[in-house]
Amino acid sequence: MKTIIFFNNKGGVGKTTLVYHFTHMMAEMGTKCLAVDLDPQSNLTAMFLPDEELERIYAQDFNRETLISGIKPLDRGVGDIAEVKVHQISAYIGLLAGDLELSLFEDKLSANWSKCVDQDEAAFRIISSFYRIIQIQAEKFGAEYCIIDVGPNFGALNRATIISADYVVVPMAADLFSLQGLKNLGDRLITWKTEWSERYSRNKTPDLVLPHGDIKPIGYIVMQHGIKERRPVLSYLKWANRIPAIFEEFVLKIPATPNKNIENDEYCLALLKHYHSLIPMAMEVRKPIFLLKPADGAIGAHYQAVLSAKKDFKQLVEIILSKID
Ligand SMILES: Nc1ncnc2c1ncn2[C@@H]1O[C@H](COP(=O)(O)OP(=O)(O)OP(=O)(O)O)[C@@H](O)[C@H]1O
Ligand SMILES: [Mg+2]
C-alpha cells in the first residue's frame, strides 16, 4: 500500500476537489483506494457523503464514525489507537471521515513531538497514531493506495501526517503568494524529515511500527481556475514559469535547471483547467465531473467538457502512477 498526500500551505487552491476527483479516477481505472480526510474542516467528507449521512454521523457523541474515534483512547490517556469505520463509497473507494474535533488534538501532537526525543513510548504512539490507523484500515479494506487530504497549514497534525506518507503532490496556483508558499513548503518538508529521523531512532518499543518519514515530492499541479478575468493570462504565465526553478531549488533541493518552464518541466504533473459550472453541477449530484451524464444537466458543450475532463484526470492518474512505479 502506498500513500499519496496532496499538500500546500496556500489555502483554497483546489486540493480537496483534486483529491476527490483523483480518488474517483483511480477507482474508475480499477485501483482500490482509501481516501483519508485529515483536514478538520472535513470538506472531502462532505463531498463524498450525502447530507443525511453526515447529519447522522456528526450527531454521534460516542464512537463517532470518523477519525476521531481512532485517537480517542490516546487523547484521553487510557489506551492506544482504536477502530475507525471505513465508509464504503463504492467497491473501489473507502473513506476515513474527517472531524472538526481533530483540531483539538493539535496541542497533544505538538507537545509529544518533543517528548519523542526523550524516548517516551506514549509520545511515539501519539505521533504515529494516524499512520497506524491508516495502515490497519487500508489493509482491511484492501486498498492499494491511500489518498490523503489535509488543511493548508504547517501545524502538528499536518506534520504527523506528512511523515506518514510516501509521496507528496503539490497543487498550486500561479501567483506570488503560491510561489512564496512553495518555498516555505520545501523548507518545512526538510525540517520535518530531519527532525523525525532524529526521533525515529530513539524508539525503544520494537513492536511499535513507525512511519519511515522519507516522503518523496513527485511534482506539482498548476490549478488554472485561479486565473481571474482581471488578471490576464500573461500574468499567469509570468508566475507559472517561475515554479520549475523554485520546485527544484526549494523542494527537491537540487540546482535549478536553466530554461525550464511549466510546459517542459517533468515535475509539472498537470495544468488543471477551470471547469466552470461543471463543478457545482457535479457537487449537486455528488459525483466527480467526469461522471456527469446528460440526465444530470451535462448537455451540449457541457457534455464535451465532461469528456475532456475525463481525459485530463485519466492522464493525471497515469502520470502520477508512472512517477511512483
Ligand atoms: N478545476 C477547478 N475548476 C473550477 N473550480 C474549482 C476547481 N478546483 C476547485 N475549484 C473550486 O475552488 C474552490 C476551492 O476548492 P477546494 O475546496 O478544493 O480548495 P482547497 O485547496 O482544498 O481549499 P482549503 O485550503 O480551504 O482546504 C471550491 O469552490 C471549488 O469548487
Ligand atoms: Mg481543502
Verbal overview:
The mean pLDDT is 94. The longest helix has 25 residues, at 176-200. The chain starts with a strand and ends with a helix. It has 13 helices and 8 strands. Strands 3-4-2-5-1-6-7-8 form an 8-stranded mixed sheet, sandwiched between helices. The protein has 2 domains: 2-274, 3-Layer(aba) Sandwich (Rossmann fold); 280-325. It is 46% helix and 13% strand. It is of the alpha/beta class. Bound molecules: adenosine-5'-triphosphate (ATP) and magnesium ion (MG). Adenosine-5'-triphosphate is lined by residues 11-17, 39, 43, 151-152, 225, 272, 274-275, 279.
Question: Order of strands across the biggest sheet?
Answer: 3-4-2-5-1-6-7-8
Number of strands: 8
Find the CATH topology of the largest domain: Rossmann fold
The secondary structure category is: alpha/beta
How much helicity do the residues have?
40-55%
**Radius of gyration, Cα only, in angstroms?**
20 Å
CATH architecture label of the largest domain:
3-Layer(aba) Sandwich
H/E element order? EHEHHHEEHHHEHEHEHHEHH
Quaternary structure of the protein = single chain
CATH class label of the largest domain: Alpha Beta
| Average of per-residue pLDDT values | 94
Strand content is 5-15%
Low-confidence stretches: none
CATH superfamily membership of the largest domain, which one?
P-loop containing nucleotide triphosphate hydrolases
Largest sheet: 8 strands, mixed
How many discrete domains?
2
Please tally the helical runs, counting DSSP H or I stretches of 4 or more residues. 13
User: What are the bound molecules?
Assistant: adenosine-5'-triphosphate, magnesium ion
Q: What global shape is seen?
A: globular
Our measurement of the CA-to-CA distance between the termini, rounded to an integer number of angstroms, reads 12 Å
